[in-house]
Design goal:
Length: 327
C-alpha cells in the first residue's frame, strides 16, 4: 500500500471511530450520575434545577445533544465542566503535560528494557540470567498495575525513603507547557510512577522481541550472512531489524495504552494528569470532561497507528505494494 493511500485510508477509518466514541461518551452520561446535582448540590431547589437543566441543554433530545456536541468538537469547543464551571479545553491543557511526561518516560523505559532484554534473551537463550529475566517478565505481565505501584511505594518510599510516593515534584513553566524534567524533585517524583507504568509494557515487548529474534537468528538469511563471514554484530543488527516490524506495531499500541490507561497509575501516585482528571470527572458525573477525554484518546490511537504503519513501511520495504498499473 502506498503512503498516500495508507494515510487516506486511516483518515477514513477515523471518522466512524470518533463518531462511535462520541456516542459511547453520551451513553455513559446515563450511568455516570446526575450532572445537575453534581454542579448545584443535593439541596438545590426545583427552580434552580430547572434553570440548570435548561442552561446545560439537558432537556433537549439526546440525538440533538449528540449532534451539537460533535459540531462543537469539530470547532474545538469541548464544552464546560459541570463540576468546575471551566472550559474543558483549558482543563485538558493543564493536565496534559503531566500525562505526556509520565507516558513518554515510561515508553522510553519499556522500549529500552523490552528491546534490550529481548535481544539479550534471544542471543543467550540458555543462560541463567536469561531464565531470571524471563521470570521477571512473567511477574511484570502478571501483576496488576496498582499492586506493582503499591509494592514500589512500600519498598522505595515507605521503607528505604529514597523516593517520594505521590505528587509531581517541582515543575518549570515553558510557555504554556509545564515540565518536571528540569528539576531534581521532578525526576525523583517521576521514577516510581514511570516504572509502574512501564512494567507491563516492557515485559510484553521483551517476550515479543525475544521470539522475533529467535526466529530471525534461525532463518536462512542469517545463516547465509554468517557463511559470508559477516561479523556477529552485523548479523545481530540485521536479525533485530527483521524482528522489529511486529514490535513497532505492538509498541504503538502500548504507547496509546500508556496514555489512555494511565488512570490507575496516576491514582495510586496522585499524579496530576489526565487519568486523575478522568477519575474526578467520573465521580462527579462531569460528562463534558469524560466525553472530551474519550475523544482525545480515540484521536491519539488513530494518530499513533498511522505513525506505526508509516514506520513499518520505512523499516520493511516488502510491505509496500506498487499502485495499479505501476512497474
Amino acid at each position: 500500500m502506498t503512503i498516500a493511500r495508507l494515510v487516506l485510508w486511516r483518515l477514513l477509518q477515523a471518522v466512524p471511530v470518533l463518531l462511535l466514541v462520541a456516542a459511547l461518551a453520551f451513553a455513559l452520561e446515563m450511568v455516570a450520575g446526575d450532572p445537575v446535582t453534581a454542579s448545584l448540590g443535593p439541596d438545590a431547589t426545583a427552580a434552580q434545577r430547572a434553570a440548570a437543566v435548561a442552561q446545560l441543554g439537558l432537556d433537549d433530545p439526546l440525538p440533538l445533544r449528540y449532534l451539537r456536541f460533535v459540531g462543537a468538537a469539530l470547532r474545538g469547543d469541548l464544552g464546560v465542566s459541570t463540576r468546575l464551571a471551566r472550559p474543558v479545553g483549558g482543563l485538558i491543557a493543564e493536565r496534559l503535560p503531566a500525562t505526556v511526561e509520565l507516558a513518554g518516560v515510561a515508553f522510553v523505559l519499556s522500549l529500552a528494557i523490552g528491546i534490550g532484554g529481548g535481544a539479550y534473551a534471544a542471543v543467550r537463550r540458555r543462560a541463567r540470567s536469561t531464565r531470571l529475566l524471563l521470570l521477571a517478565s512473567l511477574f511484570g505481565v502478571s501483576l496488576p498495575t496498582f499492586l506493582t505501584g503499591t509494592l514500589l511505594i512500600l519498598i522505595f518510599a515507605a521503607t528505604l525513603r529514597v523516593l517520594p510516593s505521590f505528587g509531581r515534584g517541582e515543575v518549570v513553566a515553558l510557555g504554556g507547557w509545564t515540565t518536571g524534567l528540569l528539576t531534581g524533585s521532578g525526576w525523583a517524583a517521576l521514577v516510581l510512577p514511570a516504572l509502574t507504568l512501564a512494567a507491563f509494557q516492557s515485559a510484553l515487548l521483551l517476550r515479543l522481541v525475544r521470539d522475533g529474534m529467535i526466529v530471525a537468528l534461525d532463518s536462512e538469511f542469517v545463516r547465509f550472512a554468517r557463511a559470508r563471514g559477516l561479523s556477529h554484530g552485523v548479523v545481530l543488527r540485521h536479525a533485530l531489524a527483521n524482528a522489529l516490524t511486529p514490535v513497532v506495531a505492538a509498541a504503538a499500541v502500548q504507547l496509546g495504552t500508556l496514555v489512555a490507561f494511565s488512570v490507575v497509575t496516576e491514582t495510586v501516585f496522585q499524579w496530576p494528569g489526565l487519568g486523575q482528571l478522568l477519575v474526578e470527572s467520573v465521580a462527579t458525573a462531569d460528562e463534558p470532561v469524560i466525553a472530551a477525554y474519550l475523544m482525545l484518546v480515540a484521536l491519539l490511537f488513530v494518530a499513533i497507528n498511522l505513525a506505526a504503519d508509516l514506520l513499518c513501511l520505512a523499516i520493511d520495504p516488502r510491505l509496500r505494494v506498487a499502485p495499479a498499473g505501476g512497474a
